[in-house]
Fold this sequence. Notes:
Elements: H1 20-27, E1 34-36, E2 40-46, H2 50-67, E3 72-76, E4 79-84, H3 94-104
Antiparallel strand pairs: 1-2, 2-4, 3-4
Amino acid sequence: MALRDEICVPCRDGGPTLEAEGLASLQAELPDWEVLEGHHLHRRISFPDFSAALAWLNHAGAICEEQGHHGDFRVGWGYVEIDIYTHKADGLTRADAVLAAKFDAISL
């Protein structure tokens, strides 16, 4: 099953994070995302203007609410930056990769 078709499964406090080999296998489905410090996923998406960036962000926000898992966003004229990690686990979990894949499926 593709990551974008999975459901974000909440972790418990201190739950297991993905190790390097687990991250590497998932990154094949997330080519536009960077893994920063082995701790979180990061992506910057460019848009033609602020309105398009905000429209994309609103769609991403609806996905976050539906999945019960949220990214950290910065939005400005022509861009959205996203950081994703699981706060309870203080690192990356499979749910983070699932959320990133769902964001990638949003039409630009």
